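note to self: the first set is below, dont mix up w the second
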Amino acid sequence: MEKTEGKMEGKIEDKIEGKIERKIEGKWIWISENRTSENERGCFTTEFYDVDAHATDIHIGDAHGMDSYAGTSSREKDIKLMICGITRYIVYLNGKEMGRGPIRSGPGELFYDTYDITPDVKPGRNFLAVRVWSYGWSTYQTVAQEGGVWFQVSSGGEVLAASGAETKCAKDLGHISHTVKRNDNLGFSDYYDANRFDSRWIEDGEISKNWGTAWVLEDGENREDREDRIKQNPLRQFQRTAKTPGKIVRIQEVIPGCQQISVNTRNAFFPGRKDADETIFSGFLGCEFLAPQDMEGMIAFPNRTWNGIIGDFTIDGKLYEVSNEHREIPVRLCEGKHFFLMQISGKFDDLYCHMELCFPENLIMEGDFFVKGPTSRIIPVIDGFGKVYGGLDEYNRLEKYPDIHKRLFAASSLKEMVEIGGPVTYVEPRYIYENAYIYSLAKRDKVIAESAVQPRHLGMLWDNQEVTRIAPPASGGWNRIIVDFQDIYVGSLEFTIKAPAGAILDIYCFENMYQGEIDYTIGLNNSVRYICKEGWQSYRCMARMGMRYAMLTFRECREEVRIRDFRINYATYAPGNLGDFTCDDYLLNRIFEMCRHTHQLCMEDSFTDCPTYEQAFWIGDAGISAVTCAYLFGDYDLIRRSIQLSAEARANTPLLNALTPTDWNTSIPMWTMNWIISIFQYAKVSGDTEIFPEMYGVVKETLKYYAGFIQEDGGFLINAWNMMDWADMDIHNYGIVTGQQAVLAYCFGLAAAYAEKNNYEKDVAFFEECQMRLLLYMETKLWDSNLKMFRDGFSPEYGISRTFSIQTHILMLLYDGILNAEKKQIVEKYITDPPVEMIQAGSPFMLYYQYECLAKKGRVQEIMDDIKIRWGEMLKFDSTTCWEVFPGFYEVSRTRSYCHSWSASPAYFFIKYALGVQMLEDGFKKVEITKPSWDMKWCRGDVPTPHGAIHIEWIREDGRKECRVRVPREIEVVFAGTEWDLSIDRIG
């Protein structure tokens, strides 16, 4: 690495197979010297010439003197674009999008992307444009960094263009920086004012010619750090497909149903904070307002404490109580001035306060909102010793307040409050927003008229010249149209419309609308706002969003609107699609396709939990995603990358953070254990044993740390988010959890086996001792000899668990947690015939483990039958993807996310077990073909392997019993089914 006088000169080395192929001359740049941005977008352009190319078609030119051709260019050497941007970038060549990035990375790494742009380069002049979105704050996918971008276009050893001091740049003034977030998981919303910036700069190079030039970042340490850790993206680029709506379901006219207020209290309470971590504190948020008349109404809070500040409040000293369960509070107001004071107390994952003021007339805010405090704060330590949430129950208020806090909350006026506690801190006006939280507006808007869908409305359904025409509102409201993409997709919205200047297009997106009832996305402002300029205009969103339905509301618009194009650019990791399954039961076929689509929606640069609500990489969720991916798609590279990324979670806590990369700190021990198990599962199915030496050091250190919580009697007693399932199990954040302890013992066993194979004798002894201590404790302390069941756990505070669950017994059985053979036989019966008092699986997540237990016993028919019932219920409610949880867990809705990766596991069971191909040796070196043990007339499919897919077809009808197999030559095949006619075709 070359350095000059402590300054980084942009010399990034691209190493291919240990050799330096070329040097990068691009420099890190930004739009200004001040890189401490907050939700800021930068625009960068440059030109380059391809003088070596030969035109393959006629020159057509353009009005700006830019050379262009109807065809492409031909040249001997490929042209490569290398680029990295923080936090997000989109790069365009001659107006065409080339790609987006970068992939998520841990604190010790940063990735650049490489694009082969040869087919898109024109002879002569070419125009490169880059949009960079610097969040400035952390999310659940990224840790806050200063904005920046670097890029280079090269051909062989020749540099055609590179980021630097000559790069044209401008701040995108159309991007609305100070506004609401989508939620604490995803970060800021994509809100844009087309009147403030010319978005045509992406296609038209003339627009940027008068811009200033970029600021080269030569600030030493930070820049050098980026260079030291940057490396090439190891994954395939996303595949992208434009999807237009399949149906228009509503044409409506609406009027506002509330006055919506959002207050971002972050800088007022905690100046300079950029992290995404939870905040446990007490304090106050208040304001003075005028009621224009005597009136009754409601003050409502759209979200629980996970996605916003809520709390008890007073109006002129009168108390109104608020909780997660009761967030719609009736209020009677007299005409005149009032004093509002909210008590903030508890754990909050976001520091925005969103309120819905539902009164006959709008309240008039007098002055700005203010805060007072924090009056107390708890800063938890995520190390297994400190109490989770500092000992606070997740949804409870703080138990103790200083005397000043109590006196302040008793104040009935701002004057009295200042007299008690001194001056308050006013929230800056840029952090106070009215009618910006589109989720609330969409939910509260009142329909005053509805029209039948007419042919004039249909143009936006097609990718052609047709337009949707929406007549001016006839009843004094705003026009609203709801469209159905007829499946959930994830990507970025793009549209072309004709509208008057100042019209506001609010696009709210959601996942389910069964029988016309919208299931609103609680905790998620899944929205885009676009303020129109005059005439025809287009906008390409940068935010990645999941949706099936889109609600378009045209506010402040009394003229006709035309929609020429409305689409989502569907983008996921490019899957191999090597696995397949079909049978004579068409419900199972539909469920398989539902699972395949669900899983693909949750494939990005790692596995994600869901495409809409979080898009987060939870290291425990990824365990199920990985095995599903192996059998469904055979994409081992993505599995490997996810395993590597999980190891970066140790930067947050030695327990491993439950998700990464982020500075929202939380640990779920079972998630860490799932990650350890997934390493061995990956190596087994892929044959890639190189993963072991890469990960062994982190696994060893992690298990050594976990061993520190094994008590003298063998109980694994830890302070952590001890979560196993969404069910009413009597387990606690500080306690011993039986099923969790069984999984940990299994992990120690895996580590011992690897250490023994590599002659790490001291490690073997340590791991085996830990494993046995854990097993003996469960055997002697947690088995109820009277009821002949394992209790769910033990808590020093509450004692032995009151509950017995199928979850505990599944994990005990699946992960070899039972030493006694008689007890093991008893538990095996519970899997298929549980006692009535035993808590049942509460989510598709836990059913994965239950089905694995059944599969081990050859009970494939029971798996297939149960899947048809449970996943068939999802189809009944017009779902095209698999739900996160079953009905009953979330308030007033069937589930939260209608698309969740761990719920796609039926596809894994169909391919691995229903097709009858069992791996006998790691890496599919040897397989056994076993006859199907479930009721089918025929089935066929493909099983991915490192050598290529195995195709198998079974026919059992009309007296025939046939099995046809196509298998790569590298795989040895054993057939267990002498009564079947076997045909094997060797390929390769």
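second set (the one i keep forgetting abt)
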Amino acid sequence: MQIRLQTLEHQQRALRALTRVFDGVDLDTSTPPEANIAFDPADPQIAHNIAEIQSGVLDGIAAIPRPWRGHIDDGALGIDAKMETGTGKTLVYTQLMYELNRMYGFTKFIVLVPSTPIKEGTKAFVQSDYARKYFADAYGGRLSLQLDVLDPQKRSKGRKMFPSAIASFAHGSRLSRGRISALLMTDGMLLSKTTMAADYDQTVLGTASVPYEALRQTRPIVIMDEPHRFRRENKAYRAIVEEIQPLAVFRFGATFPKLDKSGKTDYNNLVFNLGAVEAFNEQLVKGVAIQYPVDASGETTRLKLTSLSPRKPKQATFKNLDTGKPLTFDLGESLSFADGAFAGITVESIGKTEHPAIKAGVTLSNGQVLAIGDTLAARVYSHTYQSLMMQQAIENHFEAEWENFRRAIKVKTLTLFFIDSVASYRGDGTSGHLRLRFEELLAAKLTAEIENRQGDTSPVAQEYVAYLKASLADVPATNGGYFAADNSTADEAIKAEVDDILRNKESLLSFHGADGAPNTRRFLFSKWTLREGWDNPNVFQIVKLRSSGSDISKLQEVGRGLRLPVDAKGTRLSGEQFYLTYLIDYTEQEFADSLVSEINSDAAVGQATVKELLPKVAAELGIDETKLFIELLTKGLVDSDKNVVAGRENDLYEAYPAFNKTGLKPDKIRKDGKSTKVGIRPERYSELKELWETVNAKYYLRLEDLSLDEIDECIDAVLDLEIYRPVVGRFTQDTIVKDAEAGLKIQSETKRIFDATETIPYGEWLKLAFAQTYLPIDRVHAGLVRRNAKTALPSDFFNKATLGEFVMQFAEWMQKEFLERFSYSRIDGLVGGTALTDADGAPLESIVQGNIGVLRDEGEKVPDKFLYDAFVYDSPKERDTIRDSKLDEVVVYGKIPRRSIRVPLYFGGTTSPDFMYVLKRADGKLSLNFVVETKDVEKHSDMRESEQLRMEAAKRFFDSMSSENFDVAFKPQVKRDDIVTMIKQLLKA
């Protein structure tokens, strides 16, 4: 299989914001062909573009909060894009190079990353066949990205030859049409004086014999990954600005560094913000389900690092938190002196560490890095405890694997383990004790699964049993590892294993190898080496068999498994809720709360207080404000001053989601064993089966053809609407002034209005109009000639704004004129797997809760006729609908899984209904099926005209399913519509 990259809307939004920076900027093309074209960073058009982007004028791109609109002038134009882990920033910054070349002619880019693993991950992506195909398709093969990678130089006797990667990059010329030159390097290579500052016996670009000088002459644009690793005072950042002197620095990351003096986040012209809250809430990444074993005894030795002496004799002092006594360890000394469970773990180094967040600390022999204040728990390191964790991990894995295997198109499930030591897995010539124990537990589970599913005669079950048997036949092939020490191994088998894990992503996602044999590897082991620069979208579980020790970012820890999965055909899955199970030891019970707090702290707008929201929430819930306050107080969620009780924030938002206006939705992070699933009641599904299969059949939308006369009438009607739109720009001035309470506030005013209209060549305007409307170019041209004959068109008529208005007015014309000129027809064929059924049509045992509703009321009795075994909903209105549908006339009802039924609209896009009912007529026949779509407006007349047309199209779609023995009715439900009245009116009609 090959991964198929898709054009994702949020990534295109990022590219639109980033490329808009240079819109209308004067570009100097007189530079040498081996250098980038140039611009003046002080050009006021750049500042104007950035201000417009940040203020939210670009369609679909949210405004940047004012406190984040910082700007720092350090000699190069700085542009920032905030993108959460797992949302595809590597693809975005790679495509940015293509877009900046296509739109403006830039050809030279340096990609700077903070570590070798990230460099290898970036290299693997850019050079992968699936990325090359994606960009070749996107740009018609006209553009080609030449990637040079700067690796450590091998020393050789004789002449000192210029680093080949830099030479190749420097010689790339924009005279080679369609060539984009990119140089990939780490900060370590950037700062390597022996490589970068050496004077070589060879020159490039005529005179440059020093790499810094050669790169400086190319006037590159620098793309910086993981900006929190490149603080402005760091040597690497200074080297970029002072030695390379780039035209611009584009920074991409989920986290940005803090400014030393103010403590504010270092955003420099932030033009795109896709933070953690947005990524989780919009289902752009997996949710996270936290699991940990609850230790009833809690008896273990806990050591807290209190001080260290980095000078000889180097020593580290820990405090035994149970006895209060200090324990001092020398270099090389074993922690087993404190507790036998620490056997094999020694103090490897004291002082400077390789951990990016810990400048000075203690590094243990298992690779764990501790800062002062970090705590170790001995029980976590015992073999018994690790066996318990592995057993639970295996149970979790096979539960997820079966669900993913029986999808219409299978999805391979991977589990990633972080472990203590290389020796416990690799061993010395033979497998280590941890690997042997894991394979023993795995073999037992495989045997049990085969016996359990042997009697299921469905094709998908038999195929799965065959896969399990192949796994049992060669248990060692099911797992593999990668550790830093593997880079220097001579063992060919280990080399092949590592190469498969690091560089062959498609292989890990495939159920079969190149030879057609089953590919059963799906359990991966590492020591934190895979924590950065590597990810795989199909990691559904991460298992920490040891604590991470230091208090690093929780988002970084789960980041390896956040990407949305791809199926066996390489297609990325979206539009439904997936979960990453994160299995941790009992010492990290607060992990979920810390993760939620970290995500919410990343929100662009802070949470409003309970005191501020209480009147509005009480009105939404239809109860008295005082009564609601007493209710919150009684439950211990708020104090007498209406402040949230510390540590109860997540409980408040889960019980009363209306208070959570900007934070993380309650279903995205699961903890305490709370289920992420909702069961499907098979007896209820059987009553809904005919309706479900009917609405899940394939239908095609047919539009009547327009005659040439009708096309001309359409074009004339649109052009008569005065679609000409000049573009007006403005200079905005923000002044810091005192507010009424003697504090400071920002006061904005418009200083000057100017004409920003940008014309488009006539031929290009016609092509763009055709691309967006499919109106024939010759008919649009003829219509423009007719319009110009009546009234001369303005000289700047052919601009982007006028084109946009032409397209919008055509869409409105089409919505109205085609209301009676479209129809739906069913395509015969098998339905296959659906959101509620497997490939054989049998109902699934359960479905992920997030695909039904983000809220779950454990205190509400589940109605007998409800399709699911839990009371799950998205809004107070939906809660009322579920609770009130207990009518004799209702046979069965349920929420329709999110985006599982998409009604194609004749004017583009889709709409998705929310509820489905099977109703009993007065004569007792089960022949009336009812589909409902809820709308967030008070009354039907409040719906926009376009929304009313969507509802009319949906009604036509469901009407087309009705036959002599099968009726389907569709209605929108607004806030004032109660479901009881709707059902009774329908049956009466």
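remember for set 2: The mean pLDDT is 86.
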